[in-house]
Structure formats: C-alpha cells, structure tokens
Amino acid sequence: MKFADFISVKAIKPELASKDKEAVIRELAGSLVASGDIMEDSAESIIKAILKREELGSTGIGRGIAVPHTKHPSVEKLVGTVGVSTEGVDFNSLDGESVHLFFLLVSPPDRPGDHLRALENISRQLRDDMFCKFLKQSKSVEDIKTLLDEADNNQFGS
Amino acid sequence: MGEESIIRKVVVPNRQGLHARPANMFVKVALQYQSQVEIARDGLTVSGKSILDVMTLAAEQGTELTIIVTGPDAETAANALVEVVRRFVEEDEEEGE
Amino acid sequence: MRVLQGIAVSPGVAIAKAMVVDDQQPRVTRRFISRANVDAELKRLSGAMDLVAEQIQASQDEVAVELGDQYGAIFSAHLQMVRDEKLNESLIDSIRYRHYTAEYAVSQSFARYIQFFERVPNPFLRERAGDFRDIEQRLLNVLFGADAKKKLAAKQPSIVLANDLTPSEMANLDRVNIRGIVTEVGGPGSHSAIVAEALELPAVVGVGANLRDIQTDTMLIIDGHQGRVIVSPDEETIARYEKEVEQQRQTKIRLRGLRDLPAITTDGETITLMANIEFPHEADACIERGASGVGLYRTEFLYLGQDCEPTEEDHYQVYAKVIRDMQGSPIVIRTLDLGADKIFGEDHPPEQNPFLGLRSIRLSLRNTDQFRRQLRAILRASVLGDVSVMFPLVSTLHELRQAKMLLSDLMEDLEEQSIAFNRDLKVGIMVEVPSSVVMLDRFAREIDFISIGTNDLVQYTLAVDRNNPDVAALYNSCDPAVLRLIQMAADSAQKAKIDVTLCGQMGGNPVYTMLLIGMGLRSLSVTPSAIPEIKQICRTVSTEKCRELAARVRDMDNAWEIKRLLREHLRQLFPDEA
Prior knowledge:
Chain A has helices at 21-34, 40-56, 112-126, 129-137, 141-152, and strands at 60-62, 65-66, 69-71, 79-89, 99-107. Chain A is an alpha/beta fold.
C-alpha cells in the first residue's frame, strides 16, 4: 500500500502547534475534519478511540516517530495524515524520546488488513534514515508530499 | 452446457508431493463447489473430487498440474483450488533456534 | 543367532518374544452372488462402509488426543477415501453388474490402487500403498466380522513384527505389552516410525523380506540405537543386552526419583529448570520429569505438520491444551521461527543466504495476517494460565516495537469484542543475535524477560553454519566470544532486573551446567529428557565452586581448553560414570 493511497494531502500539517499528546491527536484529527476526510460529528469519538488505544501501549515507536491510529465506522476507507513538530512532543514513546513525526490513521472496522498494511508500509519507509530526516526537516505541505511520492516510487532504501 | 472451462496451472510446492493429506485438502475444497473439477498431469486427467483419483496422479514436488473447472462457480472454485495447492507446506523440515 | 540390519527410527532396547501380525489377514476368494442377493449385498457393503467410517473417526479422535492433531490428520484423509464417489461407484458396479461378493469387490478395487502405488518411483509416495491396504483391511475385517481392535492385543511382552504397520494398527497398539516394533518396509518418514518415537517404543524399520522367516514366539532383541534385530540370541548376547536394559531402567528410576526434589545447589540457590517443547502432548513429559514450566514452546509444528496455514482456533486449541496440562506452571510461547521458504514454498524466491534472510520475527512482521492470528490466540490463551509471549531473532529495537504495537492493536480488538485477555501479558525476546546482546540495556526497558538462544547465538557470533562439514569444527559453544556474549546478556538482564533464561541446547548439556551457574544464570530451559540429569548436577554443586570455575574460564582464550576443563570438572563430580 502506497502513501498516496491513504494520506490526505489537504490534511498534512507541516508545523504542528500542539505541545502534548492529546492536543496533537486533536490537532491532526481536526485537520482531517477540515479536509473533509472525516465527519465533524464523528471527530470526538475518533479522538477518544485513538487515546484509548494509546493507553494499551504507546504508538510512539521510537526514533521520534509515532503512529496513532484507530478503527472507526464513520470512515469508508483508510484515511490518514502526517504532522511534523519541530520542537517535539512527549508521547510516552517506547524509547522515552520525544516525537517529531506523526502519522495518524483511521480505518473502517471491517477492513483491519488495510490499516496493518499502511502501518507496515510506514514502518518500512521509516527504517530509512534519510527519509525520516528529510520528513522531520520539511517545512511545507509540498515538501512532505514530494517525499511521500518519492517513497512510493521506491526512491528510499529497504 | 457449452460452458467455458477455467484452466489454471500450478506446481506442487511441498517436498513430499501430493500424498494423502494434501490430496484430502484439495478434494475437500473441490467438493464445496458445484462445478466439475478435473486435474491433469502429462496427459492423464482425473476427477478433482475423488481423493483416490487425485492420489493416483502421484504428483511429486515440482510436478506441474493443470486444474480444469467447468460450471457456474468455476472462477471462484479455480481460485480456491490454486490457493490450496500453494499452501501445501513441508512436513519434513528441521527447526532452528 | 542371526542379526538383521534395518533402519533405526526410535531408540531404546527391548528383549521379548516376536508377535507376527501379518499372518492374520483374511483371504479373499473369487466368489459371486446370485442376482436375487444383489440388493442385500449392496446393503451389506454400505453398512460396512458406514462402520469403517465410524472406526476411522474414532481412531482420529483417539490419536489426536494422545499424540496431537497432526498425527490424527492422516485419518481425515482415510475418511475422504472411504467416502470417495469413484470408489463407491466402482464397488457398487462390481456387485450390481458383475455379481461379486462385497469382499471380492473390495479386494479387486483396492488391488488396482495398491499395485499402482507399489510401482510409483518416488519412495515417499510409494509408501502411500500402505494407506490403501489399511482401509482395505478395515473393510474386509468388518465384512468378515473380524474385530479389528483385537488385532494388536498381546498377552505377553512382545515385539511386533509386520510388513508395515498401518496407521490404524498403530492407533490400536497395546500400550502395556508391546515393547518394540520391527517392520519389513518403511523408512524414517513412515507412520510406524513417527508414532513409535512419540510412544517412546524402540523401533527398527526397513529390515526387508528376511523378517518373514521369523515365527511368532521366537526370542528377539531389538536394538533401536543401532537399527538391529537379533533373532534367537545366544545367552551371552541376551545377558549383555539385559544389562543394558537394566542400566536404562536404573537410570530412569534414579532420575525419576529426582522428579519431586528441588533443583537446589548445596549452598541453597534454587535453579529453575524448565522444558523446551514443540508438540502439545509433550506437556506430559514435562510433568513427568519435574519441569517447573515450559521455557520455550515452539509453534512451528502448526505450520509444518499441516497442509495449510493454521487458523486462530488451531493456535488457540494447542496453546490451551498445554496450559491446561501444565497445571498452572509458567509457559513461554515463542512466535513463528521459520524461514520464508518454509511458509511460502515456491512462491518465495530462493534466498542467497536464508539464515540472514526473511525469517522468524522478520517474516511475521511482513506476513501480518498470519502473525495477528497467532498473537490473538496467545492473548486469548493468556487468561487460562501463566502465559508469556516471546519473539525470536529480534535484531533491532524497531522490530520489537512493531511487534508490540501489533500486540496492542489486538488487545484493542479483543477489548471491543469483550473477549478476555491478560492486559499484563509478559513480553520477551529471544537473544540469539549479537546485536541484541550489545543493545540489551535498551531492549530491557521495553520487555519483561529474555531467553538466550545459544544455538543461533553461536552461529551468528562465529559466522558458522554447523551443517557445513568444512566449517562445522568452528561451531563451538565454548568459544570465548560466545561465552562473553552470554555473560553480557546475563549481566545486562540482571542489572535491568528482568528475568533471564537460557534455552539453547547448551543448557541441556551437563558439561556446561556448572559454568552457566557460575556465570550467574539461575534459569535453564532444556529438552524434557535432560531435566533429571541437569537437576542432579545442580543438587551436587555449590554456586561458589561454579563461580570459581567461571572465573577460571574467563581467563582462558581457547575453546578446546575450556571444553577440556569443563569435562574434567564434570568427571570429578561423578567419578563413577565417566
């Protein structure tokens, strides 16, 4: 599964304002509402579900990256967005480091495979140091989109 | 009548070949479909719904088999049968830790 | 006295009288029925078919319960054969149009298949003729009114002699009086071999036609180590083997006496001895040998013993069985530890270097559907007892985090579906790659325990494939580099206050026990049969002595010298046995 299949370009946030875990999740979910990818009246329940999933184990998978995600019946296909925080956010990551790069995903409950394949793709790409570094340095939606496209075209290793 | 057959080719993947247990798996799936199922190797064609017939193909690892399915649910049946053959796995491998 | 050589497939020695089973086959003659009796004969046939189907089902259940589902699976294929439409058509036609008796119809129809398989060049497929003989025999027994169950009952201690034992004969084997199995045909992959080993009966197969000259009640010795059958042995030979049988028995009794005693050193340190198992039925062997838990439950059999990928329920059932059988002792389930080639067969392109390729946790993280099924089953089973999950071949923190994330996702699913699981399921890694030893201080923050897998650790540290004869001599568990890594891993785990167990073959080898205790290890997981011996060593040594030994070893730089020193210490411990 490619980034282009699920990342909503209109919802990408190159400069996150939030400073804590819940606020980041709210900001990214809000951005998906603004882009029309999730409905406004489902937003609160999606945010709650993502926070609940975080309680079971942080999705901060180390190296400054987190992949908050959940399943929700209000979406018909996997949707997601990317956010970058220059300052970093305490996300209770597994390695204790603060998080700079967020991928927030919402998938339909009847298609759990999709969200796993997206996670798998993200994990694979994020193994590449250059890709991570460039993403964290991105300052505009256009920068991020270009990087994701390049990753989709296998321009990064592994 | 006059229906077209779906023809698929598969290669027996597991080292021990198409012996009783894999043949059983194959026939169990074939029996779930209405379509007529035939399976052939080197010009010998037998019923894919008979475990005895399937076993007499004596297909070893690497043998190419042709699955011929004719009937109303031929497409799904053919896909399922190809999948079954692909999933035959080794029974005689060592483990390492 | 005559010595016949066959293939050793299951170890052990037995001395007993022969019981020949092949001479009991009913003879089928060419007989016909009158037209008026056709319907009655057809009814007799269908009655026999139903009864045989029932018998096969019963065998399948029985064998599955005793030895595990993978041994029962063959009967599922037999059931399919009995219900085969082609076979039934041919039998019915023979009775209806040719007026054969049901017996003759059966023997004619099966003869075609049996002859066909006897001529197949592939030896494994050729052995399938046995499947047909088995079903034919069951049908004829029912038609003749013979009792199939009675067949292998022995009135006295006996060694069974047969052309080949069919799966149903193996299932009906008398467990009390049968002491060993000898067959004319068959190889290491035959049912006789597999089942004999599971039942811990000495067995020799493939002895050849010479076997036919032996009459029931002839005195025999079966030597399952050497693959020998000694016919009418002289007194001297009997005496020699009796001594061996007696030694086997003594050792067994002595070691069994240790079962309920703790593995505690002379200065009062407790060593936890757990068992490595693969098949669910091995839980019995763990209990019998006094294992304090299962330190390594391998799950590869679920993939290798079956013809297709296991379902979540397949996983759950075998986990639940072991948890139940282990009566509350801790169980560590290791997720799939195989190479991609074993799972995908030809769909996976051959790898240049499979041991450095897509395998174990790497494969699971790639093949997430399969991994999810296994983890869900482990989570569901986690409420049934003291269960932990362990990931094999973890080489980077990222892999561990991905696996843990998947685990948390599944917890969420289960929570939504109101399915019970243990939220505090302990998570550990197998330490078998040098990179994980080096990074263990970081790993330790994110896991509850480690288990040191020495087999792979040796291979990956020394870059040696021990199956390659040209370099196998370099494979040495005593290599100082390997010992240093084990020491590092044990120290890091203790510093981080997480549990550490050693589960490789090294733990089950008495030569290393003192050294491992001296290096600070207090938990070993070994093959069940090794537990009594290792326990005996633990009970004979003091940790102080072990530490002294470990200190001496630490100053040495040559694997062979280290091994010599360890052997010497073991000999000093048990002077009578070397």
